[in-house]
């Protein structure tokens, strides 16, 4: 099938590359010329395991191409994905101006032939109908201008539009197809989805989407090709949009819950790691997202929970549980600061090294990373902050970070530090030469903000070790 993906951020680029990998013909559109040239050369602008290899393979096999020409993408695609960003505004609502611009642009460039327009961006509930109206506005604007000068406009039935207002506009339908990709595992998640959600009111559009995803549903590219077919949830537009927000809000709430339990464990002498294991074995609860630590961040959880709270407000509901999940998470970012104060007492004049900066491992994404809040708080308390991150320390992206000295290796990080804080649970941090790091430090203290490291190993290396509720 012919596919156009508009927007090449995490979602758009992974979606486009993986759809090309399973056999579709894909054009990705982005208005950033430098980024497009980079992708045309087979280089990924983002760090995502496995993505660069898929890009290079699909470019070599001529199944994917990149352009800044929206008209070319619209002409090519039978299915058009809107995958631009919807960042959070200061008031917590989603910034949908990029979606609006793309929807209007699609409408202005539609020129015949049935199209399915897919909302892949995380958009406020009710956006499916809004996007449809914007596309129609763009369509009517272009076609009115053409007919006003007597131009022949192709119509969906092969005829001509004789005058402005003619009903024979190109046919399209809007579908909501939310993504559930985890940064750092996005390629794996695309080929091994838990479910595929399709929201719409057109049987024709849903049938085309099912055809598009058929290789994934049948697990042709899955790590477990013998598993049952991927469940496909077919529903209305609003419910599909709500599924995305509800899923992320539930997971965020689950993390805030176990962090609150961890804070109680710290006070009563219980071990949250064992508590999480004990409750996670309950099939009604499950063990995922029960890892206590310094809280959630990234591009999805903060934005999506805030957007759902704002949607509730718009319709006269306060959503107190979701508000509490956000409040617990905001406080949790500073738990390690409290632990440093308990151990070191006065922090003014001390040096603290951060192991990891990104909001999670296997990504270079710093959006709403807990490390940013931590750096801000420690700096305010007079701490000299150093950091090492396996990706950012090597990529040069860290130059935009204020009030932190980025070191090129962990030994330079440890040298002269009064404490280390594990912020991001990169796998390689489990196998560092901790005896050597302890010897380089002024005080061999390590606060494990993810309960990721082995206490006995750290203590044998000479560290004073403390976790979160652990």
TrEMBL record:
Q: Does the keyword NAD apply?
A: yes
Q: Which reaction does it catalyse?
A: UDP-alpha-D-glucose + 2 NAD(+) + H2O = UDP-alpha-D-glucuronate + 2 NADH + 3 H(+)
Domain UDP-glucose/GDP-mannose dehydrogenase C-terminal: from-to ranges: 353-455
GO MF term set: UDP-glucose 6-dehydrogenase activity
- Which pathway, per its entry? Nucleotide-sugar biosynthesis; UDP-alpha-D-glucuronate biosynthesis; UDP-alpha-D-glucuronate from UDP-alpha-D-glucose: step 1/1
What's the EC number here?
A: 1.1.1.22
Official protein name in the record: UDP-glucose 6-dehydrogenase
Species of provenance: Lyngbya confervoides BDU141951
């Amino acid at each position: 099938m012919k596919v156009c993906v508009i927007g090449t951020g995490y979602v758009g680029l992974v979606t486009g590359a993986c759809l090309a990998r399973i056999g579709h013909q894909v054009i990705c559109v982005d208005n950033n010329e430098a980024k497009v040239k980079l992708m045309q050369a087979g280089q990924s602008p983002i760090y995502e395991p496995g993505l660069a290899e898929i890009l290079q393979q699909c470019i070599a096999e001529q199944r994917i191409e990149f352009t800044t020409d929206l008209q070319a993408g619209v002409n090519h695609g039978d299915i058009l994905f809107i995958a631009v960003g919807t960042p959070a505004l200061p008031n917590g609502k989603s910034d949908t101006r990029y979606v609006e611009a793309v929807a209007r642009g699609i409408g202005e460039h539609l020129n015949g032939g049935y199209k399915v327009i897919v909302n892949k961006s995380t958009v406020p509930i009710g956006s499916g109908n809004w996007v449809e109206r914007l596309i129609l506005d763009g369509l009517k604007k272009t076609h009115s201008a053409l007919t006003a000068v007597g131009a022949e406009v192709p119509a969906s039935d092969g005829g001509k539009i004789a005058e402005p207002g003619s009903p024979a506009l190109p046919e399209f339908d809007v579908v909501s197809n939310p993504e559930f990709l985890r940064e750092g595992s996005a390629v794996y998640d695309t080929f091994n989805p838990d479910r595929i959600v399709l929201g719409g009111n057109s049987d024709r559009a849903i049938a085309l989407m099912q055809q598009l995803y058929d290789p994934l549903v049948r697990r042709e590219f899955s790590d477990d090709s013998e598993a049952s077919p991927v469940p496909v949830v077919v529903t209305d537009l609003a419910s599909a949009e709500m599924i995305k927000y509800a899923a992320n809000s539930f997971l965020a709430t689950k993390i805030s819950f176990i962090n609150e339990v961890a804070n109680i464990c710290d006070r009563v002498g219980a071990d949250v790691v064992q508590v999480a294991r004990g409750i996670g074995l309950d099939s009604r609860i499950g063990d995922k997202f029960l890892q206590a630590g310094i809280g959630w961040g990234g591009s999805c959880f903060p934005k999506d929970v805030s957007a759902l709270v704002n949607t509730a407000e718009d319709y006269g509901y306060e959503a107190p549980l979701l508000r509490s999940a956000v409040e617990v998470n905001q406080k949790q970012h500073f738990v390690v600061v409290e632990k440093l104060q308990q151990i070191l007492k006065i922090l003014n004049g001390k040096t603290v090294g951060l192991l990891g900066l990104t909001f999670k491992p296997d990504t270079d994404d710093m959006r709403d990373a807990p490390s940013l809040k931590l750096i801000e708080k420690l700096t305010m308390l007079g701490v000299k902050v150093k950091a090492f991150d396996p990706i950012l320390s090597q990529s040069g992206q860290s130059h935009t970070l204020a009030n932190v000295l980025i070191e090129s290796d962990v030994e330079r990080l440890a040298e002269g530090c009064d404490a280390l804080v594990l912020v991001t649970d990169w796998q390689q941090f489990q196998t560092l030469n901790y005896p050597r790091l302890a010897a380089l430090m002024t005080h061999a203290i390590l606060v494990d903000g993810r309960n990721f490291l082995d206490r006995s190993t750290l203590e044998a290396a000479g560290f004073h070790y403390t976790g979160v509720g652990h």
